[in-house]
């Protein structure tokens, strides 16, 4: 995990990051969101799409109003429904009249390891995109890429005209994603990484952290990192049975204490995947090799 950079951050400012793409940083920094959620505006002049509108805070909504100006909003698109990503969709739709398009609704009674992992219970899309479906506007086309794993309803959006991929929380350059069972699924996450590894996207724009300029290299490293974690778990359980929480200090040296719950959830996701593959077994809350 990369350290959060020192302030000032460009919170609330519309940044032109390529000809068709602007970025507005929301004021919700945390150990899990880096400097905050990045909302992307795709398109210029005749009509735009707003990707991951973010939290429904008054100052962020005002910043989006200013960034959009008088431009027609063709769609408000959400990668998934964690509440640092989608709550601003409803008020922005009321302000602009635009449809909410993208991931399917998902609500679970799952507190998760952090407050930001809670699901947006008010998310109600006008159109759900299946894998490969497109949303189009003046001079731009966004294709949905189904990437379950972080959550089951996660989508990325590929911008056909520039080769950019908006990766939400699936791939970020500053940190790996938290996988929180029961909805978060490590096997799905690994398959989704392999899907991206086979693509030829030019650049990734994640919802948190800097753009990824060598995407396939990063994804290859992330797959290797997760395989290393698997091997580490199997080795530790071969030495002695453990609870998931007991594995965390042995696997994550120097971990920020605020991230302990998230690390335990990802370890648990690995354990469930290894159990399905017959490599580990559990008795109550205790895990051991099969």
UniProtKB/TrEMBL annotation:
Gene3D superfamilies: Ribonuclease Z/Hydroxyacylglutathione hydrolase-like (3.60.15.10), Winged helix-like DNA-binding domain superfamily/Winged helix DNA-binding domain (1.10.10.10)
Keywords: Hydrolase
InterPro entries on file: LACTB2_WH, Metallo-B-lactamas, RibonucZ/Hydroxyglut_hydro, Sec-metab_biosynth-thioest, WH-like_DNA-bd_sf
GO MF entry, a single one: hydrolase activity
Pfam families: Lactamase_B (PF00753), WHD_BLACT (PF17778)
Residue intervals of the Metallo-beta-lactamase domain: 36-208
The protein, known as: MBL fold metallo-hydrolase
Lineage: Bacteria, Pseudomonadati, Pseudomonadota, Alphaproteobacteria, Sphingomonadales
């Amino acid at each position: 995990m990369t350290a959060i950079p020192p302030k000032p951050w460009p919170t609330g400012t519309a940044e032109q990051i390529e000809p068709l793409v602007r970025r507005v940083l929301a004021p919700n920094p945390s150990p899990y969101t880096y400097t905050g959620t990045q909302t992307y505006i795709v398109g210029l002049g005749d009509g735009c799409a707003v990707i991951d509108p973010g939290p429904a805070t008054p100052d962020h909504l005002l910043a989006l109003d200013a960034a959009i100006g008088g431009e027609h909003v063709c769609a408000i698109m959400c990668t998934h429904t964690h509440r640092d990503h989608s709550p601003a969709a409803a008020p922005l739709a009321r302000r602009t009249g635009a449809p909410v398009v993208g991931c399917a609704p998902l609500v679970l009674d799952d507190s998760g390891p952090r407050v930001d992992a809670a699901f947006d219970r008010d998310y109600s899309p006008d159109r759900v995109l299946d894998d490969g479906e497109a949303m189009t506007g003046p001079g731009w086309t966004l294709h949905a890429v189904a990437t379950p794993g972080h959550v089951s309803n996660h989508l990325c959006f590929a911008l056909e005209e520039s080769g950019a991929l908006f990766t939400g929380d699936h791939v970020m350059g500053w940190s790996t994603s938290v996988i929180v069972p029961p909805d978060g699924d490590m096997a799905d996450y690994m398959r989704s990484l392999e899907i991206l590894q086979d693509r030829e996207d030019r650049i990734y724009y994640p919802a948190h952290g800097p753009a990824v300029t060598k995407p396939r290299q990063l994804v290859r490293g992330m797959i290797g990192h997760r395989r290393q974690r698997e091997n580490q778990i199997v080795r530790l359980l071969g030495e002695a049975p453990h609870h998931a929480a007991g594995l965390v200090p042995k696997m994550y040296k120097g971990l920020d204490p605020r991230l302990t719950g998230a690390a335990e959830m990802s370890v648990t996701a690995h354990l469930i995947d290894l159990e399905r593959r017959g490599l580990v077994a559990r008795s109550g809350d205790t895990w051991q090799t099969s």
